[in-house]
Amino acid sequence: MEEIVVFWFRRDIRLQDNVGLYHAIQTGKKVLPIFIFDPDILLKFSDKEDKRVVYFYQALAQINSILKQYNSQVVCYHDRVMTVFEQLVQTHTITAVYTNADYEPEARKRDGAVQTFLAQQQIAFYAYKDQVIFEAHELLKSDQTPYKVYTPYAKLWRSRLTAQHLLDWTLALKADYFVAKKEDATLPSLASLGYKTTEEVHFKSPVFGSHIIQNYTANRDFPALDATTRLGIALRFGTVSVRACVRQALQANETWLSQLIWREFFMAILYHYPYSARACFKREYENIQWRNNETEFEAWCKGETGYPLVDAGMRELNQTGYMHNRVRMVVASFLVKHLLIDWRWGEAYFAQKLNDYDLALNVGNWQWAAGCGCDAAPYFRIFNPTEQQKKFDKELKYIKKWIPQYEESTYIPPIVEHKLARERALVVFKQALK
Ligand SMILES: Cc1cc2nc3c(=O)[nH]c(=O)nc-3n(C[C@H](O)[C@H](O)[C@H](O)COP(=O)(O)OP(=O)(O)OC[C@H]3O[C@@H](n4cnc5c(N)ncnc54)[C@H](O)[C@@H]3O)c2cc1C
């Protein structure tokens, strides 16, 4: 049997500028590209119309339509990861498995198990840096401990950046790079995976709207403007290369670059402190006496709090799977401070709904809002949703887009009065942190 190498797609669903794929091809052996629909992971996408599943499915189909020109395809499996590798080593002579590193705590455990199994079969496992510019261990303080504050982290990030970090790993593809296609290994239908294709979901390939990036600093905080890149989902599933994003940012906008650095900062925090996926980074915040009122939580989820900016944001999320960043900050602050509902409830709701959901970024930002994360907003900083609306949606354009019938005089009354809620939060937080 011919010796081959495997390339395993995960959070890097693209053929261009893909570090692991580049190295797999460089071996000179035929590459078998694979993707695994792991039932354990699919369980997390419990909504049968989940747009994220449709998104990465479409991305895989697009890769397949390109690979078809090279008489190849991504071989897809619908099984547990370990079972797939157990079968693969039986049916092929594999010398190495190539992939790109995934830094989430569960992914690291999974990859450790795969690597051990493959090592027992004398098969190498190579996981490349592709999803980030700097891996967590590459940017440490002088005493070799992780940064817990963004500003010095970002300073070091910028000072260490070289052209080498921004290389483009795109290769001109050739048919003889890949294991030839077999008829029986096409992409399974979404229906066979248990999902529906919703007609209205049609994601475009990510493009850089240069005017958006150029005007980002001035416009990014105004939710009525289409002024942020919407690349979150592409970065999450790797349909865009982060190196390409950084190259754009360096040419066009410093503020946008800072956001990409926030992304890596939160990824590094989760990597170094995996407990923070479920627990407060600052442990003393576990003492907060949350009210956790379920009726109020439901009103928040549905966008019926009586605060129009909060409600518009939640309705945008429920209808589209997206919410503008400024509004995410306002709704998160409202949930944890005004309603005193545990940030984990909000984090879980966002995880279910956000197309660009990413564990490290979601947890990092929720803990930022609750005050319990690293470099978080101090607990006494409580957004006033009405003032935020006056500042960032003065003409009510965003609000009227998501609540078309909105009229100030007839709108549902607030479920909690701002001044009372603010004072209550200050007391509860102070009590917990004394
Ligand atoms: C409570 C809360 C939860 C969030 N959950 C997520 C999440 O699950 N996934 C997610 O990608 N972003 C999350 N964010 C961060 C931010 O809101 C989104 O990244 C951004 O709104 C996505 O829109 P965009 O792609 O147009 O981003 P742009 O504004 O165009 O930014 C470009 C990219 O930079 C990164 N970025 C931007 N802002 C942040 C930030 N505050 N923290 C870390 N990275 C950032 C993202 O990868 C983003 O796609 C959250 C923010 C808050 C306040």
Molecular structure report:
With 434 residues, this protein is α/β, with parallel strands linked by helices. The chain is 47% helix and 7% strand. It contains 20 helices and five strands. It has a five-stranded parallel beta sheet, sandwiched between helices. Helix 1 links the parallel strand 1 and strand 2. Helix 4 packs parallel to helix 5 and helix 6 packs across helix 12. The longest helix has 19 residues. The radius of gyration is 23 Å and the shape is globular. The N and C termini lie far apart (68 Å). The model has no long low-confidence stretch (mean pLDDT 94). It binds flavin-adenine dinucleotide (FAD). Flavin-adenine dinucleotide binds next to helix 10, helix 12, helix 15 and helix 17.
Briefly characterize the structure:
The chain has 434 residues and is of the alpha/beta class.
Strand coverage percent = 5-15%
Ligands, ions, cofactors = flavin-adenine dinucleotide
The total strand number stands at 5
Spatial strand order of the main sheet:
3-2-1-4-5
Shape: globular
Radius of gyration: 23 Å
Given as residue ranges, the uncertain stretches (5+ residues, pLDDT < 50) are none
Mean pLDDT: 94
Terminal-residue CA separation? 68 Å
